[in-house]
Amino acid sequence: MIGSGLKRTPLFGEHISSGAKMSPFGGWEMPISYEGIIAEYNQCRKSAAVFDTCHMGQFKITGDISNCGIENAVTQSVGTIPVGKSRYGFILNERGGVIDDEIIFRVSESELIMVVNAATFENDFSVLKSRLKPGRIENISSVFGKIDLQGPLSREILSDILGGEVSLKYFGFSFFDFLGEKTIISRTGYTGELGFEIFVRKEKSVEAWRKILSDKRVKPAGLGARDILRLEMGYSLYGNDLDEDTTPVEAGLEMFVCYDKDFVGREALIKEKKEGLKKKKIAFKTKTRRSPRRHYKILRGGNSIGEVTSGSFSPALSCGIGLGFVSPEFEDEKEIVISDGRVGMEAEIMDLPFYRDGSLKN
C-alpha cells in the first residue's frame, strides 16, 4: 500500500491535489508524473518545470574547514571552493566504492552545506560524523526543503518572481530575498537545462511551490520526467549507476576526484588504476524505440559482457538509451545487443551526453 512506512515531503498535499501519480522512491512517497511523463519532459526542455526535491538530505559543516576532517571525508578539494560556489564529489569507502555522491556549497570561510541523496542521508551522516571532528557537522535535513526550477525560461521566471535579475553562474549560489526571508538559490540541477535550486525552510515549502506555479510558464514535473532528463545528459543515479561496489574511476567520473590530498578510498583508487579496472561504464543507444531497462544483459557475439544500470526511451533521439557496465576488454566494441533474456535489441556504444542542445550553460 502506497504511503505505508514511507516519508512524505511538505508538498505531498500539493501533489495529491494536482492529481499526481505517486510511487515509492528512496523511502519517500514521491510524484512520478502529473499530466504525463513525456509532457513534463517537454515542459522542462522547452519552457520550465518545477520539481519537489525536499526529500534530499542536507548537512551543515562549520569551523576551520582545513582542519575539521572534511578533506579526508570526500573526494573533491573543499578548501579551494570559493565562497558562493559549489562542487560535486563523492563519499567513498576504503575500497574506493561510492557511499554517496554529493554537492558541497561554500557558504562562508567557516561554513559548508552538503546536499546528499534521500535514500542514503542517514548512513552518510553517520559516516561523515565518524570522519569529522566532534561538533562540526549538523543534520539540517528536517529544517530545510528544496525546490528545483529547471528549463530554458527558468532565469526569466525566477527573476520576475524575485523582482530582480538572477545572474548566477553555473554552480554558483547566493542569498536572495524570497517570501520575506534570506534564501539560498543555486545555479545547479539534474536536468541538463538552465536551472536553479531553491533552499527554503520546510514551513515555507508550500508557499514557495505555489508562488513558482503562479507563473503560467511553469508546470510541475515528477521523477519520471527527471529520470529521462538526467539520463539524456548521462548523469549517474545513485543506486543504479553508482554504489558501494563501484568506484568513480569505473563510473567515468574521475574528474571529480582530487588526488592532491588524502581522502578515504584514495589508495584503493590508485591501486585500481595501476592494476586495471574490473568494469567500465558505457553509454549506448538502441536501434529501436523500445526502452532498455535496468538489469538487462549487454551482449557481444552472443556472450554476456555486462549489464544495463539505467535505461529509458529518449524523446530527443527517438530511440532507447542507457548506461551500463561492461568488462574492460570490450570497451572499444561499438556494436552490442541489449537483451531481457527473451528479445534482443541491437545497440551502439556512443559518447555522452546523448542530448547536446540544452540550455544548461546559458
Write a brief structural summary.
By secondary structure, the protein is of the alpha+beta class. The chain is 19% helix and 33% strand.
Question: Your description of this structure?
Answer:
19% of the residues lie in helices and 33% in strands. The protein has 362 residues and is α+β, with helices and mostly antiparallel strands. The longest helix has 11 residues, at 121-131. α2 (37-46) crosses α7 (223-232). The protein folds into three domains: 12-49 and 143-232, Gyrase A, domain 2 (2-Layer Sandwich); 57-139, Aminomethyltransferase beta-barrel domains (Alpha-Beta Plaits), CATH 3.30.70.1400; 279-350, Elongation Factor Tu (Ef-tu), domain 3 (Beta Barrel). It has eight helices and 19 strands. Strands 10-11-12-9-3-13 form a six-stranded mixed β-sheet, with helices on both faces. The radius of gyration is 20 Å and the shape is globular.
Task: From the structure above, extract its key features.
single chain; 362 residues; alpha+beta; Gyrase A, domain 2; Alpha-Beta Plaits; 6-stranded mixed sheet; 6-stranded antiparallel barrel; globular
